[in-house]
Amino acid sequence: MSDGIYADVWETSAFFSGKKKHEKNAFTKEKNVSKDKKLRILKVIVFILCILLLIELILYTFVIPSLVPAKISFSGLKTIPESLVRQKIQEIDTLTWMQFDTGKAVNSLSSISGIEKVTVDKHFPDRVSILIKEREAVAKTIVFQNGYCQTVQIDENGVLFSSTATSVAKDSNIPLVTGLPIENVGEGVRLASRYRILMEQIAYIRSLPQKYFAAISEIQVVPKEYGNYDLILYPISSHVRVLTDRSLNEDTLKYMMVALDIVNSIDSSAGEIDLRYGAVSYRRR
Questions:
Q1: DSSP-H helix ranges across the chain
Q2: pLDDT of residue 10
Q3: Cα 135 to Cα 155: distance, rounded to the nearest angstrom
Q4: What is the SS3 assignment for 77?
Q5: Tally: H helices and E strands in the chain
Q6: Is pLDDT of 169 > 90?
């Protein structure tokens, strides 16, 4: 009896043990199948991402630079309208980033008299940045062109240019210089080297805290023999003109103010003060 019970128990135990082993093998097989399925899905996703990355690489490397119009941005513009510089860029027919010629762009924009310096940088894949440095007027003069008189500005390097900025006309510290012998009238023309020194002197005086040129209505250049010249200064607060040599500096202007006070107190009929040759003399009107 006990042998039969033991046999039944052993058979039952073996049955359950086999069942558990079968279930464990089935679970392991199902788990492996799930892992294989996930791995295949992951491979598909990685493949798709690689394809998209390749397409994007081709797009940014070849398509956009070659077919898409370049995105051009300007900086440094103050008085020159952006429409003018964009028109100059369009003239060189640079539609795409790949076609954009930086050298032609610099040459085209440099033809605008009010521009002193141009820097062009291309940024992959489709951006072009253009940095413009405008000329700064240190003086102005009047030229006769095409039957009309017009006011043009002069920068520190002696280059004539036009500006639509109202600040130039209103700035009393930008003196009017007349009598300059300009042979070829036009924008972008550069003064002779001997007159560029005068522009440098004016630029330095303008940089001083005192606004000396606010007291002078006009600086007249009087050419002399052998390329030399003198200057005639016209003070705003006096009818007396001041004759000086070509060395225009802060000391000269201070000397002028003192001489005007002294001469006006001595002789109210004085018409001209001569500060040349290290002495002060005057002539009556």
A1: 2-58, 64-67, 82-91, 102-110, 166-170, 193-206, 250-266
A2: 44
A3: 6
A4: coil
A5: 7, 12
A6: no
Looking up tokens 């000397």 gives 255
pLDDT tens track for 188-228 = 789 988 999 999 999 999 999 999 999 999 999 999 888 78
d(CA 175, CA 142): 12
> Tokens 């070509």 map to which residue?
246
Question: Residue 46: CB partners within 8 Å, gap ≥ 6?
Answer: none
CA–CA distance, 131 with 116 (Å, rounded to integer): 11
Question: Does residue 4 or residue 226 have the better pLDDT?
Answer: 226
Specify the DSSP class assigned to residue 278: G
Contact between residue 215 and residue 237 where contact means Cβ atoms under 8 Å apart: yes
Q: 256-262: long-range contacts at Cβ-Cβ below 8 A with a sequence spacing of 24 or more?
A: 257/215, 260/235
In the structure encoding, which two tokens stand for residue 91, read together? 């003239």
A 10 A CB-CB count for 117 gives 13
Residue 258 has pLDDT above 60, yes or no: yes
